[in-house]
């Protein structure tokens, strides 16, 4: 592999995108796709649990009572936008514009923080009226599913900050490009998971 | 922990003595530096494989001692060797250790040692991650084993069903140890799955098309695919149960809307595929061994691949056969019964392919072949009793009886352990450069296998006579005494067989001749074209693969120099640098886990912070490779007589 890598770096192939040019780096992208499959299954199990338990409210607050339409709509809007700005950072990377990459990434981080802020606020409001995760099986499942997504987002934010530092320090090269590409894959993935949360948890929660 | 009785005190004392002994010996021989530089920080897949192997054998010993304690307790009616609580703890640790801390690392040992060499790769796809996987497994296993010394072992069975495992019914730290130890090592297993899928898909030497891959590599791919599909379910079920116990949620509780059945479903979504995770690589080993020792190409290669992949898929759709009796209804039970039986078809295909390969071959009965031959009758009986269990109405009769115990031991020992031992014997010369003594090995084989039948055949009958699993004692008038006594004798014979293996290893370490050929079995696949032990960069020049069983074909044609001699093609080689961080990260996980076991949150936070720090440092790391100059490679190769 490294011999192969050597051959390729020696006469770098400029037709392929930067993050795929070095096989040593591009295999990490493959690895990351496989990782996302496992993460998808993890969420799949949490969704299944939620679907089984969502009516088990034990006389406590129901989805209908709890979910606040403007709140989760704003969260959705912010997260989808951040996914878009994240995509723009990849685009800028492909064009070799480091400053732009950093600007879009910073914006993505800020939007991510806003999302987390809203989510914390939502959770705090629920807890304040006694809708804690200890109250009923429904709430246990709700907080765990949405909270797991939220902690993924938080990790994503830290990760993007680390990527930003590296791009600032080392510029755009095969390695940093690959890292940026992967963190964006992760971010899009969280977006997709959120779309499921939005429909399966929130929308069907307020409708039903 | 002070009122647990003399058995525990004696073992505690022994553990302390062993630890003091090891620490003392390392200090006296001034080997700490060596241990750290060569092993604890290594990212070399071959060394990681050897560490997995050692760990698996040690855990086999621990699990085996547990088994003997259980069997001693059951040897006669009304026995008081162990009390009920102890019995519960021991069957729990026995089951958990055997499946998660013996079988899994044993597979990972073989994956690591064999796969990159078989596909002509210089390394696994993610060597650093590979080291992390190992240390997560290791520290997860240590955390689990610590329960024995510190606080008490889990006692709700290796399946740990709620509501029995909810805090109210099971307050002690034992269950926490189970949840966290298994969780930590499970994360490592997922990483291993990802790593080997990427390795097999992306790191094959030029020309190594998928349909030219050796069957062991195929079985690894199948096993890893199941790992990544199944283990997340385990992680979720354990995490949710942990939340119930630590945070007070109500996923699986009896009150406030919890649903224990949800755990049972999630657990078996992992648990059933798990048995295929462990058995597929054994199938891979048998395929390699049969082909090598009959000197024939494997019969029906494509059907072997197809059946491996079919098992991979079907294994995912049978989990509910573990609770036919729990009220799912006839339609659901029918679906899962039929799916379970369907697995028998591809499995049968494989067995016939092995038999056809052997047919008219000149079989050399070496140790790997012996364990393979021993496997076939086991699998025939175990498979037949498995179909009996898969028939849902029948299962109402033998559910949770000794019939089941006999069945799954027949599969797990006769299928998995036989396979792993066959693999160990087969690749031992590749790992260490010498063979294991055949004479002692044959003693081990016969004693272990005869013991096996004496131990488990009576249990089928006991099952029919109504003896349930997880019973710590039984009254005389049930009439189960004599069969149980026979079974216990068998268990002890297996223990003696294991001791022969230990003796064999120790003896061979000092007395066996070095193998200078690199190919002591006259084998077929690529790994045997390398010297033993393999230099750390594996292939001086990555070979080009032209067909299946390339090494054999090259030997037939007399063109082995195309695969071995690495003339002026030798270039400098980039290798990953050793790192202490995976070890430290495992340790940090251990600290965090230990904190959670006893609800000492400060410790838990310190541990988690350590984990986070390790990850951040890794993210910011720039240079994790070094270069071996071409000259150095040439020198190594010519010292090995290959230039
Ligand atoms: C080496 C010889 C072995 C002997 C003599 C042995 C014996 C036993 C005994 C006596 C039990 C308890 C049965 C009961 O009371 O319900 C048991 C349970 C079990 N064994 Fe083994 N065993 C052996 C090897 C293995 C191996 C290699 C594996 C797995 C790879 C394994 C997996 C299990 C499991 C999963 C359980 C169920 C534990 C539970 O009920 O929670 N055993 N074994
Ligand atoms: Cu099963």
From TrEMBL, chain A:
Primary localization: membrane
Protein species of origin: Alicyclobacillus acidoterrestris (strain ATCC 49025 / DSM 3922 / CIP 106132 / NCIMB 13137 / GD3B)
Annotated GO biological process: aerobic electron transport chain
Family assignment from sequence similarity: Belongs to the cytochrome c oxidase subunit 3 family.
Domain of life of the organism encoding this protein: Bacteria
Keywords: Cell membrane, Membrane, Oxidoreductase, Transmembrane, Transmembrane helix
Chain coiled-coil ranges: none
Membrane topology: Multi-pass membrane protein
Transmembrane residue ranges: none
Name recorded for this polypeptide: Cytochrome (Ubi)quinol oxidase subunit III
Molecular function terms, GO-annotated: cytochrome-c oxidase activity; oxidoreductase activity
Subcellular localization, as worded in the UniProt entry: Cell membrane
Record-level GO cellular component terms: plasma membrane
Keyword Membrane applies: yes
């Amino acid at each position: 592999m490294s011999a192969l890598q050597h051959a390729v770096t020696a006469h770098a192939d400029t037709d392929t995108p930067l993050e795929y040019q070095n096989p040593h780096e591009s295999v990490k992208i493959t690895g990351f796709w496989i990782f996302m499959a496992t993460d998808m299954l993890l969420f799949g199990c949490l969704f299944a649990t939620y679907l089984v338990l969502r009516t088990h409210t034990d006389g406590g607050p129901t989805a209908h009572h709890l979910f606040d339409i403007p709140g989760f709509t704003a969260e959705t809007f912010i997260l989808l936008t951040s996914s878009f700005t994240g995509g723009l950072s990849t685009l800028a990377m492909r064009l070799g514009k480091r400053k732009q990459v950093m600007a879009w990434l910073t914006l993505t981080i800020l939007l991510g923080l806003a999302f987390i802020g809203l989510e914390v606020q939502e959770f705090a409001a629920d807890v304040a009226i006694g809708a804690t995760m200890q109250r009923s099986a429904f709430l246990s499942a709700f907080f765990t599913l949405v909270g797991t997504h939220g902690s993924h987002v938080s990790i994503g934010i830290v990760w993007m900050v680390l990527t930003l530092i590296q791009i600032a320090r080392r510029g755009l090269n095969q390695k940093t490009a690959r890292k940026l590409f992967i963190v964006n894959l992760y971010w899009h993935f969280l977006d997709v998971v959120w779309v499921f949360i939005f429909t399966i948890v929130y929308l069907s929660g307020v409708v039903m | 922990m002070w009122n647990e009785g003399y058995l525990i005190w004696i073992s505690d004392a022994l553990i302390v003595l062993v630890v003091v002994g090891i620490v003392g010996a390392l200090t006296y021989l001034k080997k700490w530096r060596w241990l750290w530089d060569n092993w604890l920080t290594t990212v070399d897949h071959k060394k990681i494989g050897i560490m997995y192997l050692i760990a698996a054998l040690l855990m086999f010993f621990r699990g085996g001692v547990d088994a003997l304690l259980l069997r001693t307790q059951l040897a006669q009616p009304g026995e008081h060797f162990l009390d009920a609580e102890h019995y519960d703890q021991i069957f729990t640790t026995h089951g958990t250790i055997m499946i998660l801390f013996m079988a899994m690392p044993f597979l990972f040992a073989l994956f690591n040692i064999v796969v990159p060499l078989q596909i002509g790769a210089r390394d696994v796809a993610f060597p650093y991650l590979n080291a992390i996987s190992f240390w997560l497994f290791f520290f997860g296993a240590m955390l689990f084993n610590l329960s024995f010394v510190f606080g008490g072992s889990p006692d709700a069975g290796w399946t740990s069903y709620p509501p029995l495992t909810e805090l109210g019914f099971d307050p002690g730290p034992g269950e926490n140890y189970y949840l966290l130890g298994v969780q930590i090592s499970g994360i490592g297993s997922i990483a291993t799955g990802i790593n080997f899928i990427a390795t097999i898909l992306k790191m094959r030497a030029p020309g190594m098309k998928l349909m030219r891959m050796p069957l062991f590599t195929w079985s690894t791919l199948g096993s890893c695919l199941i790992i990544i599909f199944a283990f997340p379910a385990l992680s979720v079920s354990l995490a949710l149960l942990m939340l119930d116990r630590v945070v007070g949620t109500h996923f699986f509780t009896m009150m406030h809307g919890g649903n224990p059945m949800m755990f049972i479903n999630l657990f078996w979504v992992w648990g059933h595929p798990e048995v295929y995770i462990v058995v597929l690589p054994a199938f891979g080993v048998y395929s390699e061994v049969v082909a090598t020792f009959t000197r024939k190409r494997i019969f029906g290669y494509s059907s072997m691949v197809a059946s491996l992949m079919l098992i991979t898929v079907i294994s995912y759709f049978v989990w509910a056969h573990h609770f036919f009796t729990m009220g799912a209804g006839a339609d659901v039970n029918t679906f899962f019964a039929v799916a379970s039986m369907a697995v028998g078809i591809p499995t049968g295909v494989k067995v016939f392919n092995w038999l056809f390969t052997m047919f008219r071959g000149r079989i050399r009965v070496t140790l790997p072949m012996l364990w393979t031959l021993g496997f076939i009758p086991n699998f025939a009986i175990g498979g037949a009793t498995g179909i009996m269990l898969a028939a849902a109405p029948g299962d109402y009769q033998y559910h949770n009886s000794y019939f089941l115990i006999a069945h799954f031991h027949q599969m797990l020992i006769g299928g998995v352990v036989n396979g792993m031992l066959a693999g160990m014997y087969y690749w031992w010369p590749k790992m260490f450069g010498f063979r294991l003594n055949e004479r002692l090995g044959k003693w081990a084989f016969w004693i272990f296998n005869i013991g096996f039948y004496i131990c488990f055949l009576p249990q089928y009958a006991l099952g029919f006579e109504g003896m349930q699993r997880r019973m710590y004692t039984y009254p005389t008038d049930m009439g189960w005494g004599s069969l149980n006594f026979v079974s216990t004798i068998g268990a002890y014979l297996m223990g003696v067989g294991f001791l022969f293996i230990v003796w064999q290893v120790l003896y061979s370490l000092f007395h066996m001749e070095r193998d200078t050929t690199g190919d002591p079995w006259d084998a077929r696949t690529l790994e045997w074209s390398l010297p033993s032990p393999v230099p750390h960069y594996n292939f001086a020049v990555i070979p080009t693969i032209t067909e299946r069983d390339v090494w054999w074909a090259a030997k037939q044609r007399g063109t082995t120099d195309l695969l071995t001699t690495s003339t002026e093609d030798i270039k400098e080689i980039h290798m990953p640098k050793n790192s202490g961080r995976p070890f430290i990260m495992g340790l940090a996980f251990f600290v965090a886990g230990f904190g959670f076991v006893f609800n000492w949150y400060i410790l838990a936070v310190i541990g988690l912070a350590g984990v986070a720090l390790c990850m951040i440092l890794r993210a910011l790391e720039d240079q994790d490779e070094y270069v071996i100059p071409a000259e150095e490679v040439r020198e190594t190769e010519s010292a090995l007589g290959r230039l």
